[in-house]
Amino acid sequence: MRNLAFIAIFFIMLPWAFIMPHLGVLIWSWMAFGNPHREVYGFARSMPYNLIIAAVTLGAWALSTEAKRIPLVTTTVLIMLFGFWMTLSSYMAFDPSYAWPLWERHIKTLLLALVVMGLMQKRTRVHALVWVIVISLGYWGVKSGIFFLGTAGQYRIWGPELSMIADNNHLAVALLMSVPLMYYLRMHSENIWVQRGLLVGIVLTLLSVIGTQSRGGFIALLAMALMYWWRSKKKAGAAIVFVILGLSASFVVTDQWVERIETIENYDDDDSFQSRVDAWVTAYNIAKDRPLIGGGFAVTEIPVIYFRYNEGIDEEQWPRAAHSAYFQVLGDQGFAGLAIYLMLGFVAWLNTRYVISETRGRVEYQWAHDLANMIQVSLVAFFVGSAALSFAYYDVYYVLLAVTAVLKLIVVRELQPSILRTPRLSPMGPHPARQNVYRDTHVI
User: CA-CA distance, 220 to 241, in Å (whole number)?
Assistant: First the structure.
């Protein structure tokens, strides 16, 4: 019955996506980020929902009166260049048959980011997209937080099966990225019950992060808290709140969690840490041998390649994932691909800095100021948390990169319309006359 209900809901939403393509982006994002189909069984679990909604959204965009343009800004160029590099590295991979299925998955992520930049250039649409991210990840955060409390933290928490956040470490970082966005929505929600619900969601999501028993997630949590404290205008008050939360958390964590976190201090004796170092060495050696294109997706997981590029490894040891987003891209795409990847994050940071600077003290743009601030906190969680995880191609990260570019575009166009004369990409043919699409101020 649940299977049929989910399929019915999905196909009921499709006509709305065809009528209003930006709604298709929201549905597409919900399916990609939240993996709701992992909560059903049988044939309903394996249907190609993302492919269906992507095709409907792109088709609707092509036929709609929406402007057929993607802003040609630095983020756009870097995303397209990274997509080209992913394609080239897959074509030249050590094992193309291993690389191409992963290319197909990750190229869709970049496509979604580009569509976000093309269709979500309004405040209401950006706000709605943030809600979708929060609902998609918050569902798993709240559900897992309740499970954590109900079982007294006796079990490790994992993400939805066969998803990008199935691993407990990946889930921890993804949930941490959602917390600042929840806080942003709480700041800009007038309904007291929505504010209270988001506060409960934040608490339960943080408990879920603790429940994953992820050491990388714990370090990312500390980095995120430090970032928030640094940006807070009331540092003493924020410090007191963090101390209270820390003391409260000490009553719910288990001895098993404490023992696992304490291994961070003794990383030299930790076999799992040594295995990460071995994977990093392998990825570096591959990139040194093929500096421009690397070895193709997940190259360190191919046994013959893994042992060829790290001769000191015991052959009985199974090949490892890269265990670092940065070494993952280095091995997969080479030094050139890593440079593009790092530039994407750097440009996103510059975009948020620009928005924060230009909107400071402007009441009507407080929403953009706060969102840019909270996205920075989310980015810190990702930058730190993914340093020890094979999480380089996480879809929410790329959509947030796109959102930073859209935020900057909105601010530039509204506050400095005379200085922006940006050429446009027109992948779907000619577009109607330029229109001012940023007049609305109502938030969903």
Answer: 18
The sign of the CA dihedral 27, 381, 280, 343 is positive
Tokens of 240: 């007191």
What is the C-alpha separation between 97 and 299, in angstroms, rounded?
12
Torsion 122-171-379-276 (CA) sign: negative
Question: How far, in Å, CA of 366 to CA of 364, rounded?
Answer: 6
Nearest to 383 by CA among 345, 332, 421, 423: 345
> Can you tell me the distance from the alpha carbon of 215 to that of 376, in angstroms, rounded to the nearest whole number?
22
Q: Which pair of tokens denotes residue 400?
A: 């947030």
At position 174, the amino acid (one-letter code) is: A
Contact between residue 387 and residue 325 where contact means Cβ atoms under 8 Å apart = yes
Express each pLDDT in 339-396 by its tens digit. Answer: 999 999 999 999 999 999 999 888 889 999 999 999 999 999 999 999 988 899 999 9
What single string gives the DSSP state of each residue in 245-303?
HHHHHTTT--HHHHHHHHTTTTGGG-HHHHHHHHHHHHHHHHHHHSTTT-S-TTGGGSH
β strands within 301-397, DSSP E: none
C-alpha to C-alpha distance for 11 and 116, rounded to whole angstroms: 22
pTM over 0.70: yes
Determine the 3-state secondary structure of 71 from DSSP.
strand
What are 70's strand-pairing partners? Answer: 425
**Core vs surface per residue 265-293: b (16+ CB within 10 A) or e:** eeeeeeeebebbebbbbbbbbbbeebeeb
Q: Which residue has the tokens 């510059």?
A: 350
